[in-house]
Design a protein that fits this description.
With about 140 residues, this protein is an all-alpha fold. The chain contains six helices and no strands. About 65% of the residues lie in helices and about 0% in strands.
Length: about 140
């Protein structure tokens, strides 16, 4: 038997589920293999710690709630899609309009505060250079009549 098989047999032995014919082979292997002997000792330590621990009282309501939970894989596909849609809509329906409102408020406050701080003559305006459309360009060809 391999060490993996022996360690599975050790776990079964600790749980009281090992067949009687397999105990002999297991103990012979434990006598010759240091790794399996350490594993056997750790399994017995864990078992004695669990047995010596005081039991915890769990309310029945918790048991019912835990047993009522269905794993995600057991949920129908339509229910999962609806759940994802609800989450998506909940996350976007509030922040997006709120962000637009905050941005609009910031722009309005900035424009209003600038209009109060600056005199009308100091407000920078975007002006384009004037162009005389009737002036002749120096590189333009001359028309001779």
């Amino acid at each position: 038997m391999t060490c993996d098989e022996i360690q599975a047999a050790i776990s079964a032995y600790a749980d009281g589920a090992l067949l009687t014919g397999e105990e002999g082979d297991m103990f012979v292997h434990i006598g010759t293999c240091a790794a399996c002997r350490r594993f056997f000792g750790s399994v017995l330590d864990i078992r004695s710690t669990v047995v010596a621990a005081t039991p915890v009282d769990v309310p029945e309501s918790l048991d019912k709630r835990v047993l009522a939970i269905r794993p995600r894989a057991a949920r129908p596909l339509a229910q999962r899609r609806r759940w994802l849609t609800e989450i998506w809509m909940r996350r976007l329906s509030v922040p997006l309009p709120s962000a637009a409102l905050v941005a609009l408020a910031l722009i309005s406050i900035t424009i209003f505060s600038l209009s109060l701080l600056l005199k009308p003559s100091e407000v920078p305006l975007l002006t384009l250079p004037t162009v005389d459309v009737y002036a002749e360009h120096p590189d333009a060809p001359q028309h001779i009549e």
